[in-house]
């Protein structure tokens, strides 16, 4: 059955980027619709139970439409239904381990939210240390690279690439030193930054939009950079 895929998104959302990267890696055509999360359309609220992006609208050739929410669920659906490169290991145990590391990536994003939005110096330092500690754990899990599982790009890479993208902007402002003791993570970050699916997951205005986001939150990071 032919399907039309429409990804409801936001220009800065790292969870959206996961789905975009997975779709790009598969070579799947899709339509992307960006919305303003500060002024959510009524039609979006009707299809997103949590009021969050991404949402993947799947329309069959019979016209029936289904809405999938939660980024990892969307990525799993893409992996299971679309042709192209396999983004999960064939082995069930390894696949479960990858899913666990995808969740680990989400915990880093939670810490990053605090890091980038707080105006409190103590909270900022606490979050900076927490992020560094999580990357230290990731360092222990990495092998020879270039990707998380070696030679083959996986959904874990799709999860971590948007995390690393934050630091492309942060590094222009301040040295957070979160990668100081993680050479494997640094190499991983550099490799993912080269990937076409990763580079095209956001628009050219991403750095400016993220900087404006920091300004709106009166971020302590900007005060340190001043």
Give a quick summary of the entry.
Helix content is 56%, strand content 10%. With 226 residues, it is an alpha+beta fold.
Describe the structure.
The protein has helices spanning 14-26, 42-47, 71-81, 92-117, 121-141, 155-170, 183-194, 196-199, 206-216, 220-225, and strands at residues 3-9, 31-34, 55-60, 65-69. The chain is α+β, with helices and mostly antiparallel strands. The radius of gyration is 18 Å and the shape is globular. The chain starts with a strand and ends with a helix.
Keywords:
226 residues; alpha+beta; four-stranded mixed sheet; 56% helix; 10 helices
Shape: globular
* Percent in helix: 55-70%
What is the count of DSSP helices, taking H or I runs of 4+ residues? Answer: 10
User: Mind describing the biggest β-sheet?
Assistant: 4 strands, mixed
Low-confidence stretches: none
Q: Overall pLDDT, averaged? A: 97
Report the portion of residues in β strands. Answer: 5-15%
Class per helix and strand makeup? alpha+beta
Distance between the termini: 56 Å
């Amino acid at each position: 059955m032919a399907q039309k895929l429409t990804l409801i998104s936001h220009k800065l959302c790292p969870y959206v980027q996961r789905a975009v990267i997975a779709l790009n890696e598969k070579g799947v055509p899709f339509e992307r619709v960006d919305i303003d999360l500060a002024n959510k359309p009524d039609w979006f609220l009707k299809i997103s139970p949590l009021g969050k992006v991404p949402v993947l609208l799947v329309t069959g050739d019979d016209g029936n439409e289904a809405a999938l929410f939660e980024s990892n669920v969307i990525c799993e659906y893409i992996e299971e239904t679309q042709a192209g490169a396999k983004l999960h290991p064939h082995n069930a145990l390894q696949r479960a381990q990858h899913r666990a590391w995808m969740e680990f990536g989400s915990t880093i994003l939670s810490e990053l939210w605090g890091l980038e939005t707080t105006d409190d110096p103590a909270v900022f330092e606490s979050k900076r240390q927490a992020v560094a500690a999580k990357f230290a754990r990731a360092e222990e899990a990495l092998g020879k690279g270039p990707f998380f599982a070696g030679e083959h790009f996986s959904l874990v890479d799709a999860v971590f690439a948007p995390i690393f993208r934050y630091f492309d902007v942060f590094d222009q402002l301040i040295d957070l030193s979160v990668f100081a003791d993680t050479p494997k993570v640094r190499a991983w970050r550099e490799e993912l930054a080269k990937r076409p699916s990763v580079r095209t997951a956001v628009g050219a205005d991403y750095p400016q939009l993220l900087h404006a986001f920091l300004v709106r939150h009166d971020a302590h990071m900007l005060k340190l950079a001043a």
